[in-house]
Amino acid sequence: MTARTDQFTLERTADRIEILDVLARYSRAIDRLDYNLIREVYHEDAVDNHGKDLTVEEFVFWVRERHKTISVSWHSFGNVLIDFAGPDLALVESYAQVVQCYPPEAKDALSQLVGDVEGNTTSGKVLLISGRSVDRFERRNNRWKIQRRTIVYESSIVVDMQPEPKGGPSWVRGRRDGDDFSFQELRALGICQ
């Protein structure tokens, strides 16, 4: 590991910001089911371990299949510790919480993670997972991306899904696709098509 004084130079601060941006884009990619963006945050030869080692394409397939019936997914990173091991290598430990809503038809997707769930089966379930992502980031071609991700499970809570709040007619609703409001705004500003 490099000396702590080398961890906070102006150049390292820029590296930290770029790594944090990759983490935020990962959350957007999973929660909006943007499979191309998932690919963009990983190096092509990266490995993701959400219980077993998967290539990037295997991971994209796993997300696509597992998330088909999940109505809401919300990934949030809290504390993010970044330690540089060299000019182009960093270990990034991110504390994470994930909230996902599983309507009754998503029972199989939920049981993949937590096994059979007791209780009300007509309302669906909400899953809260606490854990960490331990990532090796590498900079290649002047871009920081994930080279290896391992999910470290800490705890989970499953509760019955409550009726959705009605909200006013002007309340913007989240979507899990390219028509989400964030993508509409990106297109309106000419940031993406």
Number of distinct beta strands: 6
Q: Kindly report the average pLDDT value.
A: 92
How many whole angstroms does the radius of gyration measure? 18 Å
What's the total helix number? 5
Strand content: 35-45%
CATH overall fold name:
Nuclear Transport Factor 2, Chain: A
Global structural class: alpha+beta
**CATH-derived architecture:** Roll
Domain SnoaL-like: 12-150
Protein name: Nuclear transport factor 2 family protein
What does this 3D model show about the protein?
The chain is of the alpha+beta class. The protein has a single domain (4-163), classed as Roll (Nuclear Transport Factor 2, Chain: A), CATH 3.10.450. It has 5 helices and 6 strands. A 6-stranded mixed beta sheet has the order 2-1-6-5-4-3. α1 packs antiparallel against α2. It is globular. The model has no long low-confidence stretch (mean pLDDT 92).
